[in-house]
Amino acid sequence: MTKTTIFLSFLLLLLGHANSKSQLNDKEQTVLLKLKQHWHNPPSLSHWHNPLSLSHLNSSHHCNWPEITCTSGTVTQLLLQNKNINQTVPPFIYDLKNLTVINLSNNFISQEFPKALYNCSKLEDLDLSQNYFNGTIPVDFHRLFGLRHLNLGANNFYGNIPASIGQLTELRTLQLFQCAFNGSFSPEIDNLFKLESLQLAYNVNMTAAELPSSFTELKKLKFLWITASNLNGKIPDTIGEMEALVHLDLSINNLTRKIPSSLFMPKNLSIVFLFRNQLSGEIPRVVEALNIDVIDLSDNKLTGSIPDDFGRLKNMTGTLAPDFGRYSMLVEFQVADNKLEGKLPEHLCDNGRLEAMVAYNNNITGQLPKSLGNCNGLKIVTVYNNRLSGDIPSGLWTSLNLRVLILSDNSFTGELPQRVARNLSRLEINNNFFSGTIPTGVSSWRNLVVFEASNNLFTGTIPRELTCLPHLTTLFLDQN
Ligand SMILES: *[C@@H]1O[C@H](CO)[C@@H](O)[C@H](O)[C@H]1NC(C)=O
Ligand SMILES: *[C@@H]1O[C@H](CO)[C@@H](O)[C@H](O)[C@H]1NC(C)=O
Ligand SMILES: *[C@@H]1O[C@H](CO)[C@@H](O)[C@H](O)[C@H]1NC(C)=O
Ligand SMILES: *[C@@H]1O[C@H](CO)[C@@H](O)[C@H](O)[C@H]1NC(C)=O
Ligand SMILES: *[C@@H]1O[C@H](CO)[C@@H](O)[C@H](O)[C@H]1NC(C)=O
Ligand SMILES: *[C@@H]1O[C@H](CO)[C@@H](O)[C@H](O)[C@H]1NC(C)=O
Ligand SMILES: *[C@@H]1O[C@H](CO)[C@@H](O)[C@H](O)[C@H]1NC(C)=O
Ligand SMILES: *[C@@H]1O[C@H](CO)[C@@H](O)[C@H](O)[C@H]1NC(C)=O
Ligand SMILES: *[C@@H]1O[C@H](CO)[C@@H](O)[C@H](O)[C@H]1NC(C)=O
Ligand SMILES: *[C@@H]1O[C@H](CO)[C@@H](O)[C@H](O)[C@H]1NC(C)=O
Ligand SMILES: *[C@@H]1O[C@H](CO)[C@@H](O)[C@H](O)[C@H]1NC(C)=O
Ligand SMILES: *[C@@H]1O[C@H](CO)[C@@H](O)[C@H](O)[C@H]1NC(C)=O
Q1: Across-strand partners of 273?
Q2: Residues 204-231: pLDDT tens digits?
Q3: Which domain holds residue 397?
Q4: What SS3 class is residue 353?
Q5: What does DSSP assign to residue 447?
Q6: How far does residue 174's CA lie from ligand 4's centre (Å)?
Q7: CATH number of 420's domain
Q8: Which residues form the signal peptide (predicted)?
């Protein structure tokens, strides 16, 4: 025998040995290769080959394919997210009887819900998000009773969210956001007592309805996201009894009445988005949730004053949440567009971590909190159109990270500083009582793009330095 044939015989012997060890594995591999073929051999799966065929001697066993996870030699996970699959999920997928995880997220699959999955009786984790699945969610959906995590988000499912979902009592996460649902969501979701995350947001064609008050019986729920899904009526009074709540987002709905007095009670609550609703009345006084990072109550009809308790918050760190558009370019302390009166909380930046103070279009009085003068995380302060007065806390002008300072339409007094924060690009102080001269130090305001200071009490001449600022595009100094 030549070296090559010895090698080949040895290899075949090895493979043959592996083969005899597990006939079933071969059966599963046949199913996988059939899947690949059914999907018209997408390039993303070109490495799926039968390693036993002579032409693919150097391919690896299917349990080593990156998309496959095997447990004790049987296929348990099919991780096919982002594979450009544009064909259907075929019925024979249930021949992979031991699947516990299927991820087909972010493909181009267009069909109704593949009921064949009912036969994958060990399925715990199903992710079909970001495809073109359509039709209704079948009424016998409870046959997937073992599911712990379900994501059908960003598809074209329509109709109702069926009551049978309420029988999937092992569910920890339920994601049904951004679909074409045009019915109602089932109150039976309140049976899912193990649920930690419920995401129903951006179902914009949902029939207008109240948030079922029984949802507040979900004591393990940490994440509740129902933005822009036609909620109306009031927020259930018992919302504060959702003791595990961390992230509450009911923004962009038609919620009315008061914010329930218990809302800021869950101790771990960290994010509260209620912006763009029709909420009225006062903001609850009692805040037990001392780790809140972000509060956005903008664009409601709130009245009364901002509770002092907000000043006790310890962890106003602020995060960027670009998804939430203009309301959350920087989300921290946001109460803009209401009818709030009284003062801004004095201690909002005692820890020096606040990034944004956004309180424009209210009826707020008093001075800017002194703590803002020693708040180096601040990037944006927009408090225009209130009844604020007094001098600007001196440290604020030069606050290390400040980029936007909009103080227009108030009654602020004092003079402009020689120096401002290095990155300050927008300074708007129209319609106030600022006085003195425009300082010659203005030549150091290198990054200024917009400088609006109409209708104040400035005197003297406009320094030539102002016209030399390299980025300045807007300059208003009229009515001084
Ligand atoms: C489906 O995907 C394959 C590649 O995987 C591509 O060649 C084919 O054009 C796609 N078909 C459609 C209708 O997009
Ligand atoms: C062996 O592997 C190499 C690199 O992965 C590949 O280019 C080649 O086509 C494979 N040979 C066969 C017979 O599959
Ligand atoms: C599923 O796993 C069991 C052992 O857990 C095994 O006996 C059975 O053959 C596997 N089924 C398939 C289709 O591989
Ligand atoms: C599925 O894949 C997506 C995209 O990579 C990922 O975000 C998601 O967590 C995965 N889901 C499961 C259940 O593995
Ligand atoms: C489940 O499997 C059984 C037996 O193989 C088959 O008759 C049935 O049609 C399957 N169910 C679905 C929903 O595919
Ligand atoms: C779902 O989409 C497929 C493919 O686009 C289409 O043929 C089918 O009619 C749709 N079904 C429903 C119920 O909308
Ligand atoms: C919502 O309904 C409108 C009008 O019927 C339709 O044009 C739009 O595509 C629907 N949106 C979604 C996400 O289904
Ligand atoms: C929901 O949308 C589907 C598909 O567009 C339509 O056939 C059905 O009549 C709609 N149902 C309601 C209650 O509007
Ligand atoms: C709050 O969070 C901590 C730390 O994650 C956790 O141990 C605790 O159980 C949570 N409290 C509630 C009421 O869920
Ligand atoms: C609020 O309700 C009105 C009419 O009832 C509707 O036109 C509007 O789109 C709703 N707004 C939101 C954000 O759901
Ligand atoms: C604040 O945040 C830090 C880190 O994010 C965390 O360790 C701490 O427990 C939080 N709470 C308080 C009260 O500082
Ligand atoms: C602001 O408060 C003043 C004094 O209480 C009141 O006259 C005025 O109407 C309020 N403005 C708004 C927009 O609520």
Answers
A1: 249, 296
A2: 999 999 999 999 999 999 999 999 999 9
A3: 304-314+326-479
A4: coil
A5: T
A6: 14
A7: 3.80.10.10
A8: 1-20
